[in-house]
Amino acid sequence: MKSHTLKQNKEFRRLYYRGKTDAASCLVTYIMKNRLDETRIGITCGKKVGNAVKRNRARRVIRAAFNHCEDRLNGSYDIVFVARTRTAEVKMQQVLRQMEEQLRKLGAID
């Protein structure tokens, strides 16, 4: 199932206030079931992460990790991933491990 992106501020805010959340050293995940036939993801990366190069790398790493576990989602969700300062410096496999652990804890994958 191909995922689409969340773009509007109100969609992000809805997840921040009403979604389930889990945090790790590289990644914070907000998740909420949606009634659509598609999973929508959003990736945010604050200036605290670093300059534009580091923020873009953090987003790329998160997107690559999500592409690996996207097929195992059970249902359709709205998901927001928030990059942390360490995200730009670690390998994708470490982010993938944390992402799978968080999604399992939040009930999105088995």
Describe the model.
The protein is an alpha/beta fold and 110 residues long. Helix content is 38%, strand content 23%. It has 3 helices and 5 strands; from the N terminus they run βαβββαβα. It has a 5-stranded mixed beta sheet, sandwiched between helices. A hairpin with a 3-residue loop joins β2 (20-23) and β3 (27-33). The longest helix is centred in the middle third of the chain and has 18 residues, at 52-69. The two termini are 17 Å apart. The mean pLDDT is 93.
Question: What does this entry show, briefly?
Answer:
Helices cover 38% and strands 23% of the residues. It is an alpha/beta fold and 110 residues long.
Keywords:
110 residues, alpha/beta, 5-stranded mixed sheet, 38% helix, 23% strand
